[in-house]
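Example complex used in Figure S2.
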Amino acid sequence: MEFKVPTMAELMAAGEEPEILFWVGCAGSYDERAQKITRDICKILHHVGMKYAVLGTEESCTGDPAKRAGNEFLFQMQAMTNIEVLNAYNIKKIVTGCPHCFNTIKNEYPGLGGTYEVIHHTQLIQDLINDGKLKAEGGESFKGKKITYHDPCYLGRGNGIYEAPRKALEVLDAQLVEMKRCKSNGLCCGAGGAQMFKEPEKGNKDINIERIEEALETNPQVIAAGCPFCMTMLSDGIKLKDKEKEVKVLDIAEITARANGL
Amino acid sequence: MVAQILFLVFTLAAIALFTVNFRKIIRNIRLGKAVDRNDQPQKRLITMIKVAFGQSKMVVRPIPAFLHFFVYVGFVIINIEVLEIMIDGLFGTHRIFHGLGGLYDFLIGSFEILALTVWLSCVIFFIRRNILKLKRFRGTEMTAWPKSDANYILITEVLLMSAFLLMNAADAKLQTLGVDHYITAGSFPISQYLQALLPSSENALIMLERGCWWFHILGILAFLNYLPYSKHFHILFAFPNTYFSNLEPKGEFTNMASVTNEVKAMLDPSFVPAETEPGKFGAKDVTDLSWVNLMNAYTCTECGRCTSVCPANITGKLLSPRKIMMDTRDRITEVGKNIDKHGAEHQDGKSLLDDYITREEIWACTSCNACVQACPVNIDPLQIIMELRRFAVMEESQAAASINAMMGNIENNQAPWKYSPADRFNWAEGK
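Predicted assembly (693 residues):
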């Protein structure tokens, strides 16, 4: 990267506090495809001059997959450890790169002693656009391109956030097309509820295939996502359908970064 | 006089029987674990008014929403007529409210129009279920009883409305014949067309009018007593069910307080947990679920909107959220029967998990909340699935090897995959 990503430890040593903590998440940290998105979120933060930091190696799984799998012990162990770190750094505001981390920290941490203002990166992008700090210029043009947005369950139905990601796409002057099942009726990519980490039960189809077929019905050039797990499921679907050349699966952060030439 | 006494006896017996069965259901619901749903009364009231009274979640599917609205409004409003029937029945009067004059004519006229719309809607519903055989009304859990239950309800409503209209037609004809007792009252915009089909003999008309009158009221009393056995119970429970529904974001799952104590004690040896009742983690049987889960089960009218949007079910997996609710109701009914027969301590060796709901079902869930979103009366099948998973994982350590591996990774590497925690920040070195 062309700039250094600041960590909380460094800021603290310098006696500074960030405006916002960027919670990267496990997928964003380790998954190669998601790492790109993580870097793009940093590029956006850097581009608008927002004072931010990450936890770096001090970050740890939120416990979400353990909780959805039924292991409340492991979840609360993770949560309390994380809350200790976050509170020690006096964190007030958090942006996450993953709807699962977002949901867990926002909704499930307060009851365990961790109360923060939590937003998802698509909300951050929307805020920056609204404040005039972020535009879609100086980079790749998405003008007139057909984009369909896949609602992640934990952002959409889970937390009622349907508009922010769409607002982030609207500035592109692209052609937004909705899938038949969208917003509160959106179809899951198949990864939620710890499914990401196991084989699916016996059935006649994989869920991501059902979803990708629906997405392809809109004849898109880009399928926009806002979740690293959806990203994996949708990308796998596109590969299986042999449509990698025609259709790109991109995170809203990647699209924003590209549109601004970051 | 005999008729009045008979009427009183039937009415009291019907109300008594209903009360007994209704109280059993309340007792069964109370077998569930405590959960506080008395916060934010104003928001709860608004939710109930919007979702139950206003049927705001029905509009997603316009055709059934439209038909259901007629049946719902018809059912509620035509019940004003039942009040008159009650008074007439008890005091031997006839059309006691006729003194309302023009308003009475308007009311009876409106009831007739509503009766026709209810009649037509129920016939269309019947056709959708039995002739068009819509996919939503099929599925493995839609066995003989649920199918018959739905048809009994529709047939009863069609018969009740037919009796109401026939009764009015006979009454109106008797009024024009100037028969004693049949005072001129009411307007009959629909039943006037049935008059031509009726016999002209005075006695036959009186028999028909009385017959329909008795059929109508006895039908309603019988129907009332059918409710506790039927999916149709939703006409009562939709209201408390929406009132006590979850107001928090759907993505938020409850934090188990019992676990919090243990985790705190583990992380901080000086921590002394507050006294909590020992219990199992998660749910194996219905009595491990919360009373809200159990009320949900009694409220479910098996419409299948949940199952039709479930990603697992759509792709051919065994999981069906409707079945989760039906199984829960069947099991709590069975537990209740056991208590009636053998006392509260009786164990029948069965449980919701395994005897009703299989592991394959609960592990197929993506926790996407589509079922919760789709339910027109705010039922939450996901919570039951999660409680069953909690039992499987925390009490039995039974999960797929890959799930255990994921949890092991979180424990050891602070990530669900087997990567070194030291490499967590390596992404910053990429381009």
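Chain A has a mean pLDDT of 97. The beta strands of chain A are 20-23, 52-53, 93-96, 117-120, 146-149, 175-176, 222-225, 248-251.
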